[in-house]
Amino acid sequence: MPATFSEWATILELTGPNPQVEVKYCVEALFQEITVEREALNTLLKQIKARQMTLPGVTPGGWSVKDILAHVVGWQGRILKWHEAEQRGETPAVPAPGLRWGDLKRFNEMIYQEHRRRSLKAVLLDYEVFHNRMIALIEATSDADLLAVGRFKWMGPPTSVRRIPS
């Protein structure tokens, strides 16, 4: 039996959801993966002093820990906006107006520019708020919708929930 959400998602993309028990375990694996990864990141963050979180150079591009967290927040915010737009019957421009999924470098730079001047305190607050909003969205979404390939048009091809844990 697959152990991780990614393994379940791969199987379900290839075969489609079969018995309901598989769907249940897949969604449970999603929550477990989110919980494990979030706890690991939080453990790491507790080891870093606030002043260190704003120092550039953590990534090859020169981002700080704050920039990385803001990047996660930026993506979560986009996902929430795209989902809300689709719920209203709108078709959001994804990943952003004038950009395609192949333009992710530009898109990621846009997110960086949007957040780079924000305070660490504001980014850390959003890190919690947006995580909780994402969890609420997942909990409010049916298992079938979470796993249905093509269900969320804004996710782009191939459409699947595999992007959520990241």
Explain what this protein looks like in three dimensions.
The protein has 166 residues and is an all-alpha fold. The protein has one domain (5-163): dinb family like domain (Four Helix Bundle (Hemerythrin (Met), subunit A), Up-down Bundle), CATH 1.20.120. Helix content is 62%, strand content 0%. It has 7 helices and no strands. The protein has helices at residues 5-15, 20-46, 50-53, 65-87, 104-115, 120-140, 143-147. Helix 1 (5-15) packs antiparallel against helix 2 (20-46) and helix 4 (65-87) packs parallel to helix 6 (120-140). It is globular and about 45 Å long. The relative contact order is 0.16. Mean pLDDT is 83; it is low at 159-166.
What's the CATH C level?
Answer: Mainly Alpha
How many helices? 7
| DSSP helix fraction | 55-70%
Looking at CATH, the homologous superfamily is dinb family like domain
How would you briefly describe this protein structure?
With about 170 residues, the protein is mostly helical.
